[in-house]
Inverse folding.
């Protein structure tokens, strides 16, 4: 019986595990290892950060449940073994994986789905003063700070306006800035704070926010952000962050009570400890057409951990959730074909589809064929996409329960 180990339970790792189990059944032992006991639905982190109007909950259980899907629910009834552990060492040659608790696992095939971590570009103060935006804990800390500031302001214990800076004009930064703009209006009303209660600034280092989308779609999103009250600053390269100040490279400064860092991600540092892998200068795993690591035909990699060059554009694939899902599907199929001594299939990139929620029940969706949908219909499409993902990894009953609870909580943000 072949033993397959998947390290990391993100979008690509979970998809690879489920597809392998479906294809191989009891012909293989499938183990997924992750440091957390849940699969993080990262696309909804911005909703967690800006949520309000919930009953007091010391441990934020209800908020956590909206984006933290237990592996026990995903793998219920599946022939997949989940191990909650942190990996300490991997030997590709010996095919041995060891955890930090000193437990060793042998493998015939290994899937690396290690995700990414925040990139601070060695900018002073990012680690010390900026809220990161990568984990459920990051989002909950930001949410707590947001509400605490308004509580203090309502008691006269904090000067107004409250100033929020979001560093990074990619999808994560745009979505968060927009949702914060909606949240602060509701919070100001709740705490009976008048006009001029807050300023939200989106700082983008380059000349455009969302540089990968069309000018027409960017104009729609820019107009929506402006209507929500978000101040967009382009060519605003952050040079240093202090406790209450963001210094820009051109000499300008932005006063702030809160800064959130969404300006970039990089491969996890652990990847560099795996001997024999070919890595990019940024530490990503270089993979071939079949998503196998260079030099090793028994090691595959997916998601944010890899650099896959699209032959048509000669540019790397973007780090998107559904791209990672596609990676997981391709890898599962290629491991099956390898076991059957069949020719592996090439990964064919596709990433022309995207949806950007821009505050409240409003989103811009770029669909197949270059069709764009905006407003409420765009938001509905986003909700449908989320639900489709839930039913792809959960039973219908569990998917519907999760989706319903998520909508009930997050609709308050709107």
């Amino acid at each position: 019986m072949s033993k397959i180990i998947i390290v990391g339970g993100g979008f690509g790792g979970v998809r690879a595990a489920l597809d392998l189990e479906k294809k191989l059944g009891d012909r293989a032992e499938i183990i997924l290892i992750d440091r957390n006991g849940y699969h993080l639905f990262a696309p909804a982190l911005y909703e967690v950060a800006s949520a309000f109007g919930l009953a007091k909950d010391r441990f934020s259980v209800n908020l956590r449940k909206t984006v933290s899907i237990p592996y026990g629910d995903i793998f219920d009834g599946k022939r997949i073994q989940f191990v909650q552990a942190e990996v300490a060492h991997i030997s590709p040659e010996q095919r041995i994986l060891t955890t930090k608790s000193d437990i060793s696992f042998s493998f015939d095939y290994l899937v690396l789905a290690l995700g990414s971590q925040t990139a601070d570009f060695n900018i002073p103060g990012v680690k010390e003063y900026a809220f990161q935006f990568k984990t459920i804990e990051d989002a909950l800390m930001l949410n707590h700070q947001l509400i605490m500031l308004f509580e203090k302001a309502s008691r006269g214990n904090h000067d107004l306006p409250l100033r929020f800076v979001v560093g990074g004009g990619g999808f994560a930064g745009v979505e968060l800035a927009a949702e914060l703009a909606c949240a602060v209006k509701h919070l100001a009303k709740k705490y009976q704070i008048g006009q001029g209660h807050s300023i939200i600034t989106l700082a983008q280092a380059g000349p455009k926010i969302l540089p990968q989308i069309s000018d027409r779609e960017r104009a729609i999103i820019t107009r929506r952000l402006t209507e929500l009250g978000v101040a967009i600053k382009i060519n605003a390269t952050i040079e240093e962050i202090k406790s209450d100040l963001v210094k820009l490279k051109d000499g300008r400064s932005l006063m702030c009570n809160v800064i959130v860092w969404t300006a970039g991600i990089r491969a996890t540092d652990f990847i560099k400890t795996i001997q024999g892998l070919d890595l990019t200068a940024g530490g990503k795993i270089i993979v071939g057409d079949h998503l196998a690591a260079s030099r090793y035909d028994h090691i595959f990699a997916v998601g944010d951990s890899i650099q896959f060059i699209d032959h048509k554009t000669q540019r790397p694939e973007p780090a998107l959730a559904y791209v990672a899902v596609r990676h997981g599907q391709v890898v599962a199929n290629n491991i099956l074909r390898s076991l059957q001594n069949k020719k592996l299939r090439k990964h064919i990139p596709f990433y022309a589809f995207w949806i950007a929620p821009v505050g409240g029940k409003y989103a811009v969706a770029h669909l197949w064929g270059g069709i764009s949908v905006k407003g409420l219909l765009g938001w509905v499409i986003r909700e449908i996409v989320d639900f489709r993902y839930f039913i792809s990894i959960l039973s219908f009953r569990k998917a519907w329960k999760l989706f319903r609870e998520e909508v009930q909580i997050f609709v308050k943000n709107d």
